[in-house]
Amino acid sequence: MIETPTRERIEGRRIAEGTFYDFKREVDLNKKHPGGGKSAKERFIDDVVAFLNGAGGHLIIGVNESDGVWESYVPMGGDREKTCNKFLQVIQSNILPLPTKIDVVPIDVPGGFVLDVRIQPQWRKPFQNAMSGAFYVRGGPRNRVLTVPEIREYFADVEKMETDLSRLFEGFRRDLFSTDHLNSIGRISLGPLGGLSHREDDDSGARLLLGVLPRQHYDRFRPCYEASKSSQRGIAAFNGGWYPRLKGCAGGFEALATRERLFVATDWHILGWVKHPFDFSRERPDISSFEENLRRYLRSLEEFLKEVHVVGPYAITFAIDGLDEIDGWSRPGMSSEIGDSRPSIVENLADLQVLGDFVTQVRSALYY
């Protein structure tokens, strides 16, 4: 078990340099190398990248070590919060992709404080020093450069999640379109003029599709998902209210509401659809409400997953079909579908960037 550094553990030499710990006497983020070599900031980023590509760990700044254990402190002074935020901002601005699950925490010592850069294990690898383009990994008390095959293997893990979710999502779409009772799951009946106006029957004609594939999908030692053995917290439905209890079906469990369906597979992937995702009460599609509903829906779904110990990262994808059936609001020449491109890898289902990009696509497809 990796112990969290404290003053007592450091001074008691229970924390020693190795795979999970590294001591730095000081890190002056503004210091340049006199001979034109790496700056202190670039070397610091190398160290953080190495832990990110390894098993995580602690980079402790302000400790003078001897033979890998504490000898004395080189304490910092000033505003603790500003110092922590400065280091965190440097990390977030100089590493690709943007790392998550990193905290910079001060530890009080005589004369001031030292910093504990806490780097939790990451799944979305490899991470790269954006200043130099270098890839490092922590191995024992030293960093080493990742080999080209290792870098490719890291990228392959992410690509596999994207590819597998795309395959599952496409099969889900095919099943929907081939269902005998297709009209009951989100496609309005076509009239003699080729479509029904939402003004006539309050039917938008559009349908939101969702796919989620968590990393636990690949965990061979994780038991299959069984709704009857779960705590079964409520899952907020997209259009308000709550889904009914998940019930068994082929390959997993599903919850059906009037205009929605959510499917949770026994191997942990999730698929769902929502009929009528837009509110036309103002005589136009309310995109702001759509975004709020989708964010709330995803957050509720994520809380449900956390209760059964399924956490990020996730591969996630969205699509909306039937846009051409939204009479008076779909743009001429626009495709009847948006989204459904390569899935995104996210730590949190309601990722603001991914969600924002999708909503932007929605806006561009409709008169608003």
Give an overview of the whole structure.
Helix 6 packs antiparallel against helix 7 (352-365). 28% of the residues lie in helices and 24% in strands. The N and C termini lie far apart (54 Å). The protein folds into two domains: 7-146, 2-Layer Sandwich (Methyltransferase, Cobalt-precorrin-4 Transmethylase, Domain 2), CATH 3.30.950.30; 154-365, no CATH class. Strands 11, 12, 13, 14, 15, 16, 17 and 18 form an eight-stranded antiparallel β-sheet that branches. It has helices at 7-11, 40-53, 80-93, 148-178, 198-201, 287-307, 352-365, and strands at residues 21-24, 57-61, 63-66, 69-73, 95-96, 102-109, 112-119, 128-129, 136-139, 142-145, 207-214, 247-249, 252-257, 260-265, 270-275, 314-321, 338-339, 344-346. The model is unreliable at 180-203 (pLDDT under 50). The protein is of the alpha+beta class. Residues 17-145 form the Schlafen AlbA-2 domain. This is Schlafen AlbA-2 domain-containing protein.
Give a quick set of tags describing it:
single chain, 368 residues, alpha+beta, Methyltransferase, Cobalt-precorrin-4 Transmethylase, Domain 2, 2 domains, eight-stranded antiparallel sheet, four-stranded mixed sheet, 7 helices, 18 strands, Schlafen_AlbA_2_dom_sf, Schlafen_AlbA_2_dom, Schlafen AlbA-2 domain-containing protein
Q: Roughly how much helix do the residues carry, as a percent range?
A: 25-40%
SSE succession: HEHEEEHEEEEEEHHEEEEEHEEEH
Number of strands: 18
**What's the overall geometry?**
elongated
**Helix and strand composition category:** alpha+beta
Over all CA atoms, what is the radius of gyration?
Answer: 25 Å
Major pleated sheet:
8 strands, antiparallel
Mean pLDDT: 84
Strand content: 15-25%
Low-confidence stretches: 180-203
Q: How many helical stretches?
A: 7
* Structural domain tally: 2
